[in-house]
Q: What sequence folds into this?
């Protein structure tokens, strides 16, 4: 390979040593998840957007896994936006609606159902025979999660199973555009109809998590199961020994050693949940614990999930991913961290999830 620039990788921060997964007891997992949740609340999140939506979903799942009451932040956040009126302006504005669907199932309050229907109508106006575009001319992995997970939650809340089928259709359309037949990994996105083969970690987390959400709602969707199994097996094969994937998960020399915790958290959650669905359970569960053992040292005492990369637009070359800042606490890092600890807690305690499973 010529013309590479490994300078960012060569100056990457030293890796933190992983913990043995045996120390991640039920109590440790629950305490860490609670600290991540409190830190997310302290961020002062206000926008109805994708990072906030991932936090809301993570808080719901963490409360379910730990047997805790739902954090008041979730209800207050949703109620404030519902009262003001929600006007989505991008597909990333859809995912907070998953919390609306959950609240409708729990309370029966019609305001939440009405908001779900409003968001569904907005999404339907932008849905055609092909994959939903993130931007005109661009298909991104993010969309399979932001729209797909919302569809799954609305399907359950509104008793509309056809929405699960639509989420599965979108997931497979995205897999067709972004999936690499040689490696089984997924690219971040396409630009002007051309897939850019950079195997971004968070893209793989988004697609993996959307896949398990869909299969948890309808385990009979064999095409999703098969493609997801290939992806997760590939991720397990590329996982570094310390457990935390680089920002690009294929070990590209320009990003090697630049770890990315939010991707690792999302992938870990998907590994645990896929194993629970019977997909290579021993191998995927082992990879999940290795990922969480590597992730755990990056969670500070105040619950900050550190080394989470900033919001990342599609990069046209691998080097672009080596210079994305990762020195700030990000809502998606907190939310994906919550999803990881919740999935691990369910796995460790064998406790089912009443509302979400």
A:
């Amino acid at each position: 390979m010529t013309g590479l620039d490994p300078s960012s990788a060569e100056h990457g921060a030293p890796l933190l040593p992983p913990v043995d997964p045996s120390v991640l007891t039920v109590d440790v997992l629950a305490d860490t998840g609670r600290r991540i949740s409190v830190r997310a609340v302290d961020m002062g999140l206000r926008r109805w957007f994708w990072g906030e939506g991932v936090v809301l979903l993570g808080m719901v799942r963490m409360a379910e896994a730990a047997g805790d009451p739902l954090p008041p932040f979730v209800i207050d956040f949703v109620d404030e936006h519902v009262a003001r009126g929600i006007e989505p302006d991008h597909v990333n504005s859809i995912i907070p609606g998953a919390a609306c669907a959950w609240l409708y199932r729990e309370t029966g309050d019609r305001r939440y159902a009405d908001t779900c229907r409003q968001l569904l109508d907005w999404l339907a106006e932008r849905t055609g025979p092909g994959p939903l575009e993130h931007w005109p001319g661009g298909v991104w992995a993010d969309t399979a999660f932001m729209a797909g997970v919302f569809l799954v939650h609305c399907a359950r809340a509104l008793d509309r199973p056809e929405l699960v089928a639509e989420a599965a259709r979108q997931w497979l359309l995205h897999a067709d555009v972004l999936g690499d037949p040689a490696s089984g990994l997924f690219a971040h996105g396409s630009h002007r109809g051309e897939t850019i083969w950079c195997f971004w970690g968070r893209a793989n987390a988004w697609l993996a998590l959307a896949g398990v959400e869909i299969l948890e709602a309808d385990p009979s969707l064999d095409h999703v199961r098969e493609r997801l199994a290939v992806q997760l097996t590939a991720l397990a094969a590329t996982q570094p020994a310390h457990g935390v994937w680089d920002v690009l998960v294929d070990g590209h020399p320009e990003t090697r050693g630049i770890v990315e915790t939010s991707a690792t958290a999302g992938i870990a959650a998907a590994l645990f949940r896929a194993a629970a669905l019977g997909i290579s359970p021993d191998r995927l569960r082992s990879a999940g614990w290795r990922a969480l053992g590597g992730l755990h040292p990056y969670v500070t005492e105040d619950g900050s999930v550190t080394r989470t990369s900033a919001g990342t637009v599609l990069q046209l070359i691998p080097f672009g991913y080596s210079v994305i800042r990762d020195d700030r606490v990000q809502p998606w890092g907190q939310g994906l961290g919550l999803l990881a600890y919740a999935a691990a807690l369910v796995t460790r305690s064998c406790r089912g999830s009443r509302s979400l499973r």
In short: The first strand starts at residue 189 and ends at 191. The CA atoms of residues 196 and 204 lie 14 Å apart. The chain has one domain: 26-349. Strands lie at 189-191, 194-196.
